[in-house]
TrEMBL record:
Its EC number is 5.4.99.-. The active site is at D146. SUPFAM superfamilies: Alpha-L RNA-binding motif (SSF55174), Pseudouridine synthase (SSF55120). This is Pseudouridine synthase. It catalyses: a uridine in RNA = a pseudouridine in RNA. Keywords: Isomerase, RNA-binding. Responsible for synthesis of pseudouridine from uracil.
């Protein structure tokens, strides 16, 4: 791949008009389209001073500029210097590390938020991860946790481990368990929710069967959306609350939260998927975060060994449980 001189640029001509950005860069710089796409996604290549999509359609007199990666990295480091958070490392090998993500921390940047992410912390502490994975904003990251959730997350330290983990998540051979506190009294000791999940018109994820009442006998139904499977066991019963051990077999956005909201048992502390009829008892302080914690994660290493890691409930969640009355 050609070396890109820092702060160089070119202006598109009439013959470039209508071309895809990745195709044009590959043509002009003598690289593959895959290499060109990496430049675009890493924001090393900018159009008119802004990041662009790989399929951006070139216009006449567009200014394509190349910026050294170091400038973006310095921006990330500066953002992390402003953060007082640290991320506990549960385990670390030459292949991977397992972290205990705090609640309130995004896993990777979004269009609305770039600072205080797990990805930024990883690049600060492990700058060599910048080239691991499929996107520079997600160094070594193969799965996610909601910003509001906490718990275990595995990060690949090598390209080989990244693809090994990715394959396991795709084939659903990893195991992920969560401790989740929901409102209401869940009737069954064990259950499985299997109705699909899709994005609603307001941007939130939705999952609702085409029936009037949701019960464990009627959650299997044909409905547009993506397959989603959530399995649960009751761990504890409290007045107006149920503590669950949850295993997800798929990894849909907000899956646990959406499934239990649709099941009429929203997760405690969820400000997005909530029902007005559920609230704290009189005099009880509301929980300041989501009661959803990834407590157990297991996967295989490159040599085929199976490993399992656990993380106890954060103290704030333990304290909240202590305020509830057992049944």
């Amino acid at each position: 791949m050609n070396t890109i001189p820092p702060h160089t640029s070119f202006t598109t001509a009439s013959e470039d008009k209508g071309s895809r950005l990745d195709f044009l860069l590959a043509q002009k710089l003598g690289m593959t389209r895959s290499q060109a796409q990496k430049l675009i996604r890493s924001e090393t290549a900018l159009v008119n001073g802004r990041s662009a999509k790989v399929g951006y359609e070139i216009r006449l007199n567009d200014v394509v500029e190349f910026v050294e990666k170091v400038h973006k990295r310095e921006k990330v480091y500066k953002a992390m210097e402003q953060s007082v958070r640290d991320v506990p490392v549960i385990a670390e090998t030459d292949e991977y590390l397992v972290v205990n993500k705090p609640a309130g921390v995004l896993v990777h940047p979004t269009e609305a938020h770039e600072e205080h992410t797990l990805a930024a912390w990883l690049l600060t502490r492990y700058p060599e991860l910048e080239d691991v994975g499929e996107h520079p904003d997600r160094p070594g990251i193969v799965h996610r946790l909601d910003k509001e959730a906490s718990g275990l997350l595995v990060v690949a330290k090598t390209t080989a481990m990244f693809h090994h983990l990715k394959q396991q998540f795709q084939q659903r051979t990893t195991e992920k368990f969560y401790d989740v506190l929901v409102y209401g009294e869940v009737e069954r000791e064990y259950g499985m929710i299997t109705f699909p999940i899709d994005r609603g018109p307001d941007g939130r994820m939705v999952s609702r069967p085409n029936i009037d009442e949701v019960t464990l006998e009627t959650v299997r139904t044909i409905q547009p959306g993506r397959e989603a499977i959530t399995e649960f066991w009751v761990e504890g019963r409290f007045v107006n609350h149920t503590l669950l051990r949850v295993k997800i077999h798929t990894g849909r956005t907000h899956q646990i939260r959406v499934h239990f909201f649709a099941y009429n048992h929203p997760v405690v502390g969820d400000t997005l998927y909530k029902q007005r009829r559920f609230r704290e008892a009189r005099g009880q302080q509301p929980l300041s975060r989501l009661f959803l914690h990834a407590t157990e994660l297991s996967f295989s290493t490159l040599d085929g060994s199976r490993v399992c890691y656990t993380a106890p409930l954060p103290e704030i969640l333990v304290e909240y449980l202590s305020t509830l009355h057992s049944r």
